[in-house]
Design brief:
Blueprint lengths: L5 H5 L10 E10 L5 E9 L5 E4 L3 E10 L2 E12 L2 E10 L4 E6 L4
Antiparallel strand pairs: 1-2, 1-7, 2-3, 4-5, 5-6, 6-7
Length: 106
């Protein structure tokens, strides 16, 4: 059985976050172990409207470092206007902030 030190994980820094990020208000549930699980989010549209996205489906959650900053990256999808839309949510625990990064649809 192999064990890995925390320093080994940080050595795999992903550099800076690429793509356009948008601030998001996320309702999440924290497990007993302290892991955040996003449930729904609200964000502002280009027309300054507040959009609500319910029932977020988390496909994968990964702990990553971007430019030395710890970030939890959630690969998600949700039903928006009758279409399943993929996206990535980034949680920055030090700042307690969520950001949305859109992904290309398949």
């Amino acid at each position: 059985m192999a064990f890995r030190a925390e320093g080994d994980i940080r050595s795999r820094d992903f550099g800076s976050i690429r793509g356009t990020l948008q601030k998001a208000a996320v309702k999440c549930w924290f497990t007993a172990g302290g892991k955040a699980m996003p449930l729904m989010m609200k964000l502002q549209s280009d027309r300054q409207e507040i959009l609500t996205v319910d029932h977020i489906i988390v496909l994968r959650a990964e702990k990553k470092w971007y430019a030395g900053i710890l970030t939890w990256e959630y690969t998600c999808q949700a039903l928006v206007e009758g279409k399943m839309v993929p996206f990535v949510l980034l949680f920055h625990p030090e700042e307690c902030q969520w950001k949305l990064k859109r992904t290309k649809e398949k």
